[in-house]
Amino acid sequence: MDAAQKIQVVEKYLLAVSTDNLDLIREIYADNATVEDPVGTPPKEGIAAILAFYGSFKGVGVKLTLNGAVKCAGNAAAFPFTAQVGPRALDVIDVFEFDKNGKVVSMKAYWTP
């Protein structure tokens, strides 16, 4: 998987969360993926738990905007973005690890309230 393909997945992710598109979330993640958001909390394990996690944002109006370059190395991509919920903005760095099929197998989100 080259850097351009990883960046496409990041762009799909930002769109998926910003538009409450769980079909895109399902397309991005592997069935056995884990999501640790934020790092230090118990991981959501498996696609059902991941879809439930992102489904909890539905109707909240979360908008994600990339605010720096996507950095790719090995089987991973790290990217900074702003999560806007109403007047509140949160700066976040996410790290995706990909499997050989280009699916995200691990997502870790680095942020503090």
Q: Which class best fits the helix and strand makeup?
A: alpha+beta
- Which fold name fills CATH's third level, the topology? Nuclear Transport Factor 2, Chain: A
Strand content: 35-45%
Mass-distribution shape: globular
Order of helices and strands: HHEEHEEEEE
Question: How many domains, as an integer?
Answer: 1
- Cα separation of the termini: 33 Å
Radius of gyration: 13 Å
| Total beta strand runs | 7
Q: Would you kindly provide a written description of the structure presented here, covering whatever features stand out?
A:
It contains three helices and seven strands; from the N terminus they run ααββαβββββ. The protein is α+β, with helices and mostly antiparallel strands and 113 residues long.
